[in-house]
Amino acid sequence: MTQDELKKAVGWAALKYVQPGTVVGVGTGSTAAHFIDALATVKHQIEGAVSSSEASTLKLKALGIPVFDLNEIDDLAIYVDGADEINPQMQMIKGGGAALTREKIVAAVADKFICIADASKEVDVLGRFPLPVEVIPMARAYVARELVKLGGLPEYRQHVVTDNGNIILDVHNLRILDPSALEKTINALPGVVTVGLFATRGADIALIGTPDGVKTIEK
Ligand SMILES: O=C[C@H](O)[C@H](O)[C@H](O)COP(=O)(O)O
């Protein structure tokens, strides 16, 4: 099976967590795109979606799924999204597609975070994938210097502006042994909007695509 077939398998497997009559939290990226395709097949049974990016909003609307402003929603049962890495504690690195901040906001509102990922995303220790950090543009150099002090090698993601008008620093050379502590430390730097570590609030359920089928891990 190709990596995309594994992504498709988990995207469609997540459909079983969608309850009729609800608003569904929808993530961003190539795996989440498969989930949106699956969601479109039950669009008349759900109320709609809240989205974590302009790209997902466009796809949802193109498939006829109503998209709500998160501020209109009090209750979100599930948030379904991919990840760049996931560890055995269900903590993740996200933001390879630059959508980390809105993803973290929608995930915070949801009761359950359902992570959909192909098996290549499973790691024992987070950090092989460069850690994305969304930064307000005027703070770029300052935050980069602070990230070097933390042992990282930050790289400015050229030609990328987030949906919120900010820039991304991708931090290489990290071996993240305490993800919750690093999440708090980086989030506390002035100028940082969000770090792409989803540690304090990790996933509740992970659907992992393997050549032998979809593996379900629950907290
Ligand atoms: O900003 C992007 C998101 O965090 C994605 O969920 C993550 O990068 C995984 O993307 P993909 O499903 O395309 O591998």
UniProtKB/TrEMBL annotation:
Pathway entry: Carbohydrate degradation; pentose phosphate pathway; D-ribose 5-phosphate from D-ribulose 5-phosphate (non-oxidative stage): step 1/1
Record GO biological process: D-ribose metabolic process; pentose-phosphate shunt, non-oxidative branch
Keywords for this protein: Isomerase
Gene Ontology molecular function, alphabetical: ribose-5-phosphate isomerase activity
Enzyme class: isomerase
Residues given in the record as substrate binding sites: T28, G29, S30, T31, D81, G82, A83, D84, K94, G95, G96, G97, K121
EC numbers, comma separated: 5.3.1.6
GO CC annotation, single: cytosol
The keyword Isomerase is annotated on this UniProt entry: yes
InterPro entries tied to this protein: NagB/RpiA_transferase-like, Ribose5P_isomerase_typA_subgr, Ribose5P_isomerase_type_A
Family membership: Belongs to the ribose 5-phosphate isomerase family.
Subunit text: Homodimer.
Name of the protein described by the UniProt record: Ribose-5-phosphate isomerase A
Organism (species): Pantoea latae
Origin organism lineage: Bacteria, Pseudomonadati, Pseudomonadota, Gammaproteobacteria, Enterobacterales
